Every structure is written in structure tokens, then in C-alpha cells.
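Good morning C.,

I know you're traveling, so I'll keep this short. The sequence:
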Amino acid sequence: MRILFMVMLFLHLLIHLIGFAKANQWMDTASGTKMISQTQGILWLLVSILLLVTIILFILRKPAWILLSIPVVITSQILIILNWDEAKYGTIFNLIILIVLIFSVAGWKFENKYKEDKVQAILSNPGNNEIISKKDLEHLPVIVQNYIVYSGFVGKPKIENFQLSFTGEMREQNKKWFKFRSEQLNIIRSPARYFFMKAIFKGIPTKGYHRYDGITARMTIKPFSIFKVIDIQTSELLISEMVTWLNDLCIFSPGALIDKKFAWEEIGENTVKVKFGSKGKEVSAVLEINEKGQLINFFSNDRYSVDHNKQYMFSTPVGGYQNFNGYRLASYGEAIWHYPEADFVYGKFELKKAKYNLHA
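The C-alpha cells, ready to paste straight into the viewer:
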């Protein structure tokens, strides 16, 4: 859809260049065709230049294309009205741009809410620049200590927050996979998670925002960034987001597990149970760590399936450890519901970027 829109913008640019060429009599005009003045010709050229800049900004995914397209559409339509007989079909292009513009503004406002929440969360939880030492690990089970050391967190600053970027695929039961891109911010001291996703679902640009601020949790899904098809804020979702927050820390920020808010229980040679409580609610998970010191799976019975509104075992097998800004992290993972009838893989995630201790 993005490619089609870019092609349309380019065609619109060519039409305005033709108007500029006719104004300078560089092209033959049909008998009886209204002549275009040189003053108008300058405006046709100006719109062409602005359209070119708009296309570049759109390709680069810069929101500034939205602001620039407003004067482009207005000026273009004025020129079309002044030369209606020859240029009236250009109105179709301007209407399409206007529709995309409306959807884009809605998307910008929706995503800006996520960005505002992210900045506020970072400002509310400043770092202290303390360094993680091996002494900070002494109260943890040995296999968890080995995992934190392997991941490269010892000798680096204690984690206050971290930001992750993913690409991947998701699906609903009995439905096809759809691709997505996402960015999220997790806060450690005052547990919070802000997750924003962009996808093309059934051919429709769709955005979703999962917001967990430590007290409440809300999930909003908007096709075209306008229509809410899902808007949930329940106690079950709060529990699920607590599990997801814990899952993120265990996989992508094990250095944060030194915090005393986590309780531990050794249950096997390669497995350990972790508990996390907040605001009178508690969740737990079992971590499986191999002999290399790599986390390879995370299991929890506390997460609720949105489709069934019921708790089932949830797991996230991970692997493909790579270096991300000096930390060894799993680069690939899957999200699985273990339903009674069969296991269902509903998500595949590829980590693209990981940043720690961001400052607003």
C-alpha cells in the first residue's frame, strides 16, 4: 500500500511538471486548450518540488511529510480549479492524498500518546549510575548468576529502563500470519511497559498499543489508526501484562533480576522459579537455562489468553544469541499458548535493537 501511494504521488508530480512545461510552451498544446500563464507555471513547479520533498519524507517515514502535504494539496487544487477542463482529473489524486493524510494524522496522534508516555516514564525513573557487581548476584540461584554473567551485565550500570525494537509475525487461531514492527519501553524501578506495534492486518494498516503503568493495563487496536476494534482494560489483562513485563526482563534485561522485588526458588538442575508481586497481585514463571548460561525458555501459567479469557500455560522459547550494544541477548523468540488440544505458536519475534538506561 505504501508503494502504491508513492507511485501515485510520483504521477501527481509528473502532472504538475507538465503544467510547468506548458506554461513555458515547452510542449505542444491542443487547439482550443487554455494557455497557462508563467505565474501559474511557477506555482506548478513549486508544487512539483514540494511533492518531491513529500515523497522523500514519506519514504524515510518522517512525520513532516504530513505537514508538507497540506499546502501541497491546497495549492494543487487551486491550480486544478483554474485549469479545470485540462486538469480536473488531478482532483482524484488530491482526494486520495487527503484521505491518506487524515489516516496519517490519526496514526500520528495515536503513536504520539505512546511517545509521551515513554518520555514521562523515563523522567519519573532517573538512573543512579551504580555498577552491577558480582556481590549484587550473591542472593540469586547459581544458574541465574551464570546467565547474568554470560549476558554481559556485570560491570555495567544497573538497569533503570530499556527499549527494544522488533520485527516479526503474528496470527490468530486458524488465521494467516501477518507481519509487524514494534517498539517498546520497559521501566524497572516502578514496573511499567509501553509497547507500540504497526502491522498490515488483512491488507489494512493497523496499529496497536499495550500500556502497562504498574497500576492498570490497557490494550488498544486501531485499523487505519481510527477505528477501535479492541479496547480492553481488565484485571485479567493487568495480570497478563505483569507476566509479559517479567518475560521481557528475563530475556532482554537479566541484569535487572538482581532487584529484591523478585523471589527465587530452585526447582531443578537447569530450572528456577521466579515470582514478582505488585499492588497486591503476584505472577510467577519458570526459567530454563542451559549449561552455557543461556536462557532457552520461559514458562508461566498466569497469563490470560485474550481470545479465551482464560489462563493457559504460556512459553517463549528463545535462541540465536547475538551481541547488542555489548550485551549477549537472544535475537529470536516465539510466543506459544499451550492449549489443551494443541500448542499454538502465535508470535515470532526478531530483536533488531536494544538500548539501556535511556534519558529523555
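Safe travels,
E.
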